[in-house]
Amino acid sequence: xxxxxxxREFLKTIGLPDGDAYDLPASAKRFADGGQYRFEVPGIQGxxxxxALLEAMESYGLYLHRxxxxxxxMRLTDQEIASMVELAHKxxxxxxxxxxxxxxxxxxxxxxxxxxxxxxxRLRGQEQIVRAVExxxxxxxxxxxxxxxxxxxxxxLLNKMREAGEIPAxxxxxxxxxxxxxxxxxxxxxxxxxxxxxxPVRDIQLQMLAAMRQAVECPIDIHTENPKSTGGFIxxxxxxxxxxxxxPIYLKTGxxxxxxxxxxxxxxxxxxxxxxxxxxxxxxxxxxxxAVWSPKGSLL
Length: 300
What we know:
This is Peptidase family U32. By secondary structure, the protein is α/β, with parallel strands linked by helices.
């Protein structure tokens, strides 16, 4: 047995896949309601656009399980947050709000350089950690329970605070694709420090996604399409296989309508995002009609 074979054998002994799953095995894992997939629309930055999105989804005969805001909680007024929480309750969908402090909004020169950009949206200094927690506490007071996390240390702390009762026990933490994770070991680590769902890098391939699914129990969030700023690719034909190998999965759809991650979507954009969900649903119905869509109102 050579060195690489020994490495693969060790990975198996600790419950991890010994490589990418090129055989694309079907996942037997499911949401608690028995569903394999749910729809999520990201980049919805305020209540007016959120309402337009939910109405447009209904016009296509569709429903959402997640609406995700990406600009940051600190960019919203209390009234805007309360209105988005109210819309989420009315339309029986989860609301995920992004933690606001991040390297790109801090006084970092490095993050704007060619090499420094690799730090992503991670936090610089303990004061930024404290401020990130304040973002979560504020939104939680206003009724939000879903949070988009960009920093692994912040995730670890928020999980500790959740366990200690410092923030509500039913808070849900979703790790962003901007954290840059794309392998089973990273996914396992994130789950172990509190991740309730994990969004891998946007260009993760099916065999990599299948291997990641073998490593974790929590839902995986996968972009079915992307803004121009993160590749611009549209993966609708891959969605049936994404569901089959990675269930339970959130299908993040509508991103190609935007130019960037924090694009300030208009009400017209919201209608275009809903159309993208309809096009993805057509792919599922055509090529994987037996796939189980979680019922409306099956939430966190």
